[in-house]
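Quick one, tokens below. Sequence please?
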């Protein structure tokens, strides 16, 4: 369909819905990439928190961060792993919801166009 046919077929409301669908499709990827970046930044944020906690609490016997991982791997996996999984699942959910909104709006516009074509007119 070329540009002239598209302007002829689409009403203002359909064009607005297609614009919203396009934005939802783009925002789905932005949300997914943002949450992947947040998941990657969990470990540096945890290191910074651990160092800040050790500088405030001057009690002797604290281990280095990497020693803490070596001596308590289950604690590391549960804390860090759950945070990473939380960010990845949240990003996936936002991606799926926004992608679904986009596809749903595209389907609504296409259904309306097909319905108007079947009736033989272009009633708004």
């Amino acid at each position: 369909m070329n540009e002239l046919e598209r302007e002829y077929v689409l009403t203002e409301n359909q064009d607005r819905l297609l614009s919203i669908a396009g934005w939802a499709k783009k925002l789905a990827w932005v949300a997914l990439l943002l949450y992947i970046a947040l998941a990657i930044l969990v470990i540096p944020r945890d290191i910074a928190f651990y160092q800040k906690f050790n500088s405030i609490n001057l009690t002797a016997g604290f281990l280095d961060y990497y020693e803490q991982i070596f001596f308590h791997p289950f604690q590391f996996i549960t804390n860090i792993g759950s945070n990473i999984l939380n960010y990845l699942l949240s990003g996936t959910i936002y991606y799926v919801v926004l992608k679904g909104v986009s596809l749903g709006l595209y389907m609504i516009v296409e259904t309306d166009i097909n319905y108007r074509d079947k009736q033989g007119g272009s009633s708004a």
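Residues 73-119 form the longest helix (47 residues). DSSP finds five helices and no strands in the chain.
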